Amino acid sequence: MADTLTSILKKLLNQPTAPFHEYHVRAQIEQYLLDVPNVELSTDAFGNLLATYRKGKHKSTPVWALGAHMDHPAWVKVPGKTDEWEFLGGVPKNLVEKKENIALRKESGDMAPWGFPVVFEDGKVHAAACDDVVGCAIIVAVFKELSRLGLDATVHAAFTRAEEVGFLGAWHLGKHWPFGKDAVFLSLETSRPVNGAEMGDGPIVRVGDRLSVFDHELINVLMRTAAEQGIRVQRCLLDAGACEATALQACGIRSVGLSVPLGNYHNLDDDQNIVSEHVHIEDVKQMINLIVALVATKHDGLGERTLEERVNLRMKEYKKYLEIGNAKYEEMTA
Predict the structure, then answer these.
(1) Closest CA to 65 of 185, 214, 222
(2) Minimal CA–CA distance to 287: which of 220, 229, 239?
């Protein structure tokens, strides 16, 4: 039986994960992709899992490299100390160390993620680590769909490690970029909806995050593809957090981001209680549809002139007007 989106989400979201302890998620991704036709897998020196779907000779410009991180904030054992735990990830220490919250963790070897079950209910999926295991599931689903359709295309992916402690896997990826000079990075995240973004209104084309703004031409390609395919998206600055597009961009890789709106970001509800995260499944489906369309669409370059090209054309178009205006000024000041 072919894997459905629900089964992919359920299997991956049931895997325990933490910064530096992503091995269960990675093994499940490998199991899903190992026998998918036209997909090649490898691992870089940091332990990021790399994948490439390649069929035929068609290679669009740009070539897309999808990215999602395999970790989530969680407790881990302190190296060399069998009975000491440390919480890694962006959740306030005074909250995670409350007695009632410590009781919510579920030990799994050297890590202890929050012990919330995976629940599908009312069009949503609830889990301990939607951020960013849902992004990983989206890439798996995209690769499976590309293979099922037999599309002639090339697309890369990186499943990164240790994002929650400062983009460590993404930084290694950017500094040792394996996908060639024509490839651009597309961060796939689950993110807190802010600045007008809403859950259930489709994936968010991310203009930027808390630390940087993203490549405007790549944003235009995403928006144009969504419009052409009739896929509902939101276009917002998500500045309540930061994503791996910022890290890759700082390494000199052209980058942009897509996000599925996320409820209870980093397992905190509005009252600062530790709870499960959740996303709308329809938002996830629409992101998959958008990425498949993005890969399947032939982009001869980025389709639009650069700002420099547009300004130069306007300079030629209005050259005579400039000359007349200059001449009038010279007459006035003579």
Answers:
(1) 185
(2) 229
